Amino acid sequence: MSSPSTTAASPAPAIRLERVRFRWRADSPLTLAIDDFRLDAGERVFLHGPSGSGKSTLLSLVGGVLVPEAGDVHVLGTALTPLSAAARDRFRADHVGFVFQMFNLVPYLSLVDNVTLPCLFSRARRDRATSAGGSVADEAARLLDRLGLGLADIHTRRVADLSVGQQQRVAAARALIGAPEIVVADEPTSALDTDHREAFVRLLFEECARHGTTLLFVSHDAALASGFDRTIRLDEVNRP
Amino acid sequence: MMLRLAAKSLWHRRLTASLVVLSIALAVTLLMGVERIRGATRTSFAAAVSGTDLIVAARASPVHLLLFSVFGIGNPTNNLAAATHRDIAARPEVAWTIPIALGDSHKGYRVVGTSAAFFQHFRYGEARALAFQVGGAFAGDDPVILGAAAARALGYRVGDAVVLAHGAGDVSFALHDAHPFRVAGILQATGTPVDRALYVPLQGLAELHRPANDDEADPLAAAMHGHDAAAPEATLTAVFVGLRARNQALGVQRALNEWKGEALTAILPAVTLQELWEIIGVAENALLAVSALAVAVGLGSMLVALLTGANERRREMAILRSAGATPRDVFTLMMGEAGLLALVGVLLGATIVQATFIAGESWLASRYGLTTGGLVPSGRELVSLGLIVIAGILIGAVPAYRAYRQSLADGMTIRL
Question: Which residue of A14, A180, B197, B342 shows the fewest CB atoms closer than 10 Å?
Fold first, then answer.
């Protein structure tokens, strides 16, 4: 999606924050003060920061759930701040897939329904998933299979019966379905043991490489940083 | 889209959801049941007498008079002299009269002394005349005609001998063994109190009460019978009057109420029925209020269930947001759940009522003479059912708005 707010001839960065200021309440201190933060399209970036350093807030700004009090947030060349809340929600649905720490799944939906959830809210991702897999459900099954969850009972199995590692792979499949341009992973491996962590990151790399997806991977565990194109320390860019 | 999610979410919590649905359904059953019984009662009460312009009896309250003369509820306090009946029948405005003598019973069914005019002039429902299944009007010595329900319950056939008792109780101590009656005919079912009575000629009833043995020597026993043992002709309880012109009813009523011979009360059945509704209406409204309260409690239980769930579901809402849902989608999801619960509850309740009335229709008709008056839900019922669903959806707005606010604040992550 091109945007009138981009004037540069080079392809727009996937994510760009400029002179962003954010605080939760008018009388509280700044949570975020980021002058320059950018991810190029197709980049795999490891964002490292201790808890409480404003990681979740930064991701909410990228997702368009929050807006800064000052500065610009551009995602795929689109300035999010001027958009309405509903338009930001739609933009997120179309372009960004999320994986969180744990309990990523809706308990009353089947594995497949959990994976296809973004296709309920985004027509673009529904269309892409359909053209990739024949149908949204088939594409979900294909993704689950590639992530090592080729279970026979994915349509009926309760998500609560899955192991944490399996749950995280279902969450990854949901972030990837319909090939969004950006995948944001917020501590997705912190509930996994070391072996599963590395396997999970490898899977995520493979899938992102397939569509040239930009990956923003957030973790406090610096051991995972190898293999990423770049590591950003949040406390170096965020100086409130 | 959100509605499909709502249905899946409810199915996931089907135990809680089904309890909520059940409480709404039972409340709806109660409300609709009360409404239906009320409607059926009114219809069948109104159908019990038709075409009779006036009912005359010894001085009594109009409602009391109507109840004992038409419905066989309660006992008459005083009798009417046969001469008074003759005077009334002789008035120029009067087209016909049906004399009625009450006070006897047979195995719990009322025995009504009357004349052949009863079978000729009595009308019920929409001006329908009485008809016989078998036999015919009074014929032979000491005939008795049976109402349809009484005949079915007692199992009598034409020609059977019937021994009648004095007093309207189920068990009577004064058995008139000396006077067996013969079944001369059985009426067709009317769905009115006519079905649950036995009819004998006035003369036969008078014979019945004439002392056959030592009653004559014992004035106390004769007094206990409540009838003047020495009377040569039957005393009456009430007279049904048909006029030549309906617009004379008020004038004749006034004349009879000011009768110089004895203290009389004349009522216009339709007017007194209206008075009866006003009395019953208080109880009906109380029942309706209780039912409405039950509906409120049912919807309240839904509110409790949804609000209790709301806090546990903050993470679910955050997941939905991260997948692209707007806070409005979250609101719609919660409203959808409330709407589905209310809708399913109302449909279940309506089905229970419908099934019960279809199954119990014949029993109601034979036991209480209630005709349920069409099993298709009335427009009024549909409106009130629709209002309950709408109320349910509106109540759903409370947890939905809370979830909306939470979802706005939480975004994709849950702080705290």
Answer: B197
